[in-house]
Design a protein that fits this description.
This protein is mostly beta strands and 138 residues long. Helices cover 9% and strands 32% of the residues.
């Protein structure tokens, strides 16, 4: 993994997407939360900065750039039993977060002895729900 690129720039129908794990300023280890100061990204040369290190999904605008935190499909840090992913619409330039409920008891029944930190994450319940709930997904 050390040989993998720290970031990736993708052109998609005229939009410049910057893909990082952490943040545009620290691609590997940066933390960007919904409540972080997003103005530090105003001068980044990208239409969309997609990230996920915090496992907390959000979409925010700063200047002409959209910040997209995709959250986590495995261990969300906002609502533990609602996985997240994201999409980018190249027709409109809009980003969206999509959520799917996870049957936590069924999931945990398949794990011999889950780590206590995993159990804590799956039990989290944030006061604010971010994204569109996808119903009927199997």
């Amino acid at each position: 993994m050390r040989a993998w690129p720290r970031q990736r720039e993708v052109l998609c129908d005229g939009y410049k997407l910057l893909l990082v794990h952490g943040s545009a300023l620290d691609p590997t280890n940066g933390y960007v939360y919904p409540w972080s100061d997003h103005t530090v990204f105003a001068d980044v040369d990208a239409d969309v900065i997609a990230m996920g290190h915090t496992h907390r999904p959000f979409v925010a605008k700063v200047g002409g750039t959209t910040l997209l935190n995709v959250g986590s499909c495995g261990l969300p840090r906002d609502i533990g039993n609602v996985a997240s992913c994201a999409s980018f619409d190249s027709d409109t330039g809009e980003c969206s977060v999509h959520r799917v409920r996870v049957d936590t008891p069924k999931l945990l029944a398949r794990v011999a002895s889950p780590h206590q930190d995993v159990l804590k994450c799956l039990d989290r319940r944030a006061s604010e729900f971010v994204g569109n709930l996808v119903e009927g997904f199997k």
